[in-house]
Amino acid sequence: MSKILVTGGAGFIGSHTVVQLFEAGYEPVIVDNFSNSNPQALEGIAKIIGQSCTFYEGDCNDIAFMDKVFATEKNIDGVIHFAASKAVGESVQKPLLYYKNNLGSLIVLIETMHKYGVEKLVFSSSCTVYGQPEMLPVTENSPILPAESPYGNTKQIGEEMIKDVVVSKNTPLRATLLRYFNPIGAHPTAHIGEFPTGVPNNLIPFITQTAAGLRPTLSVFGDDYNTPDGTCVRDYIHVLDLAEAHIKALELLDKQTEKYFWNVFNIGVGRGFSVLEVIKTFESVSGQPLNYKIAPRRSGDVEQVFANVEKATKELGWQTKLTLADGLKDAWRWQQKLSQTAVS
């Protein structure tokens, strides 16, 4: 059984990927410091797969900690690197935190992988690397424009770091870079989902918390963009479909005989939905009316972005199976469970 280290494995995307890794026959090993995740995710994973996963609590920026993980596990076959700070708005306010955490951890990880002879890396990147695209949908060959936020810039730099390591041919590395669009939803069992800390930075948990009565109003940041209804447009992908892409990315790396390899893929649905479309779809699938208001534009937000996913379909053999409505149903089921747990 191939052992895969999953940094940030207790997070939203990480926890769902851990489940799919196990179901695909891999042995996931989780690293997380719970800075943007919840220990309950580990319990949820165990309920779904029927057993606990090996887990190490610590920071990927900590060289000694990461060395201990690799030394203890000995035969790690590959790494999926999720661990990073990810809030666009927060990154504008705290840029140094994002550069230190997101880039420092990647450097430590690659150096430790090299020390222990681990060559396969799946990197969690983002559609934010495209900045505000000049043409839509974006392909993997679309220009990498100036990032709209420090978070986006860390993903651009992270990609360049990985490419430079591969091109140098000093450190054997086979890497697949996945540019995520906007993950939504939860596991259909409602055992795992998104645990936003404090005020949510993403639209869907803010919607579900408002519907659950935890927040009085949902703010829609701007209705004067150059989009069909004036609100921002995003490509929303179900987290289960996104998790599946990581399995396909590992399989691609397994097929590579060259020690120095990298490739990049858009991981999205392939069409955009406006904020108001998402709100209306949620109201339809949940039966819950939402109290929302139009607020000023938010710093760092891109007007619209959605993916061309033909390359991922052709070269990874991957495509989405679930819809926006599916994602919103699962997210609402998850929120209801969280609310019930809080009451009890």
TrEMBL record:
GO terms for biological process: galactose metabolic process. Pathway: Carbohydrate metabolism; galactose metabolism. Keywords: Carbohydrate metabolism, Isomerase, NAD. The keyword Mitochondrion does not apply. Gene3D superfamilies: NAD(P)-binding Rossmann-like Domain, UDP-galactose 4-epimerase, domain 1. GO terms for cellular component: cytosol. GO terms for molecular function: UDP-glucose 4-epimerase activity. It catalyses: UDP-alpha-D-glucose = UDP-alpha-D-galactose. Residues 5-330 form the NAD(P)-binding domain. The keyword DNA repair does not apply. Its EC number is 5.1.3.2. Coiled coil: none annotated. Its cofactor is NAD(+). It holds the Pfam family GDP_Man_Dehyd. Belongs to the NAD(P)-dependent epimerase/dehydratase family. Homodimer. This is UDP-glucose 4-epimerase. The lineage of its organism: Bacteria, Pseudomonadati, Bacteroidota, Cytophagia, Cytophagales.
